[in-house]
Design a protein that fits this description.
The protein is an alpha/beta fold. It is built from 15 helices and eleven strands. The strands form two sheets. It has a nine-stranded mixed β-sheet, with helices on both faces. α10 links the parallel β7 and β8 (249-253).
Length: 369
């Protein structure tokens, strides 16, 4: 990437809205320099270009620890190229002209990362599940990507940090800013130990339309997206839609069927758009290569009765609880011959399921569990 092209991309980053599909398509077709020259003459954009000095923007960004990563850089993640074929959502699409990054984690190291997103109004249940999933991902050496917002985002970042794993926040404001302000301590920690990423230029304010553009980056930079609690109009569903269009793994954590906070997730699962997951182990099985991180099918603890044949179960059901019954009496109740009943009683005695009571048999304590 030439210096002129990089500076043109800095200017475009400052002048056009993040994710503006038409503009980003032109950059891909004509090059950043050509689009920059053309847009500088558009009257509607003149205020944004007025007084804009890309070199100064880069210098100021560098002073606050920001780097500008563009296509052609070693750090540029190739997966962003998938945005060229994915259909745009609400005109928020296209490959970014560049990304502003703060923190030691490099964008080209995010292969295999997993996005964990969901409601800002998270329940205790949702926050605990999100934190647990992120902690499991960290233990497996995978990076958690989220949006730094209240609720599920915060829980996911917290879970990854608590487990000593890397986590990346993709913001809708400048990477040098903190939003929400209540998360200043967390964002600063991510900037020191993980990474804070934004398509919005330094100093850019968080705007609703920028959150929609931001969501596509969360989905694109991750190998899969987990949605934990999302109402039917949740912004997290926009991220989920991007994951689907980008052919990324999409997973959903179920909640109570009466919970409005989980209705959006349940719809994703019901329609087959998302795979149901309940833990970090489930998530790892979905995103891992075939044959890796396989989850054992849950089974109840084995009981002594599980080792019995059909005939032995039939005899056991005919043995009384309180007082002993003779072999002939048990045989009549079981509807079996005396000899197979005697054999069965011998096996049941070995398993301590029946015991002698005078001349007869009764259930042992272990058979009453």
């Amino acid at each position: 990437m030439s210096t002129d092209d990089r500076l043109a991309r800095v200017a475009l980053s400052c002048a056009i809205e993040p994710g503006e599909d038409r503009m980003l398509t032109l950059v891909g077709e004509l090059g950043a320099g050509a689009v920059h020259e053309r847009l500088r003459g558009e009257e509607s954009l003149l205020p944004r270009f007025h007084g804009l000095d890309p070199e100064r923007v880069l210098a100021d960004a560098n002073r606050v620890g920001l780097r500008f990563v563009v296509p052609g850089d070693e750090e540029w993640p190739p997966v962003l190229g998938d945005l060229t074929t994915a259909p745009a959502l609400q005109r928020r699409g296209g490959v970014p002209v560049g990304l502003w990054v703060r923190g030691p984690v490099r964008l080209d190291q995010l292969g295999g990362s997993v996005a964990v997103v969901g409601s800002r109004s998270a329940t205790t249940y949702g926050a605990d599940v999100a934190a647990g999933i992120a902690a499991d991902l960290a233990a497996a050496g995978r990076t958690t990507v989220s949006g730094g917002a209240f609720g599920i985002d915060q829980a996911a970042h917290r879970g990854a940090v608590a487990a000593g794993g890397p986590t990346v926040a993709v913001l809708a404001c400048g990477a040098d800013r903190v939003y929400p302000e209540a998360h200043r301590r967390m964002i600063e920690h991510l900037a020191a130990e993980g990474a804070v990423v934004s398509e919005t230029p330094p100093g850019g304010a968080p705007m609703r339309i920028r959150f929609l553009a931001r969501n596509r980056l969360i989905a694109t930079l991750s190998s899969g997206t987990v949605v934990v609690e999302a109402a039917v109009r949740s912004g997290a569903l926009n991220t989920a839609n991007w994951a689907g269009r980008l052919n990324r793994h999409l997973m959903g954590v179920p909640g109570p069927v009466t919970s409005a906070s989980s209705q959006g997730v349940h719809q994703l699962v019901r329609t087959g758009a998302a795979t149901l997951v309940t833990s970090g182990e489930d998530v790892l099985e979905v995103v891992a290569a075939a044959g890796e991180h396989l989850v054992a099918e849950p089974r109840a603890p084995e009981r002594r009765r599980d080792r019995l044949s059909h005939g032995q179960r039939q005899v056991l059901d005919a043995v009384p609880v309180a007082s002993g019954a003779t072999t002939d009496s048990i045989a009549r109740i079981a509807g079996m011959g005396p000899r197979p009943v005697r054999d069965a009683l011998g096996r049941l005695a070995e398993l301590e399921l029946v015991e002698r009571d005078g001349p007869g048999w009764r259930l042992a304590a272990a058979a009453r569990e």
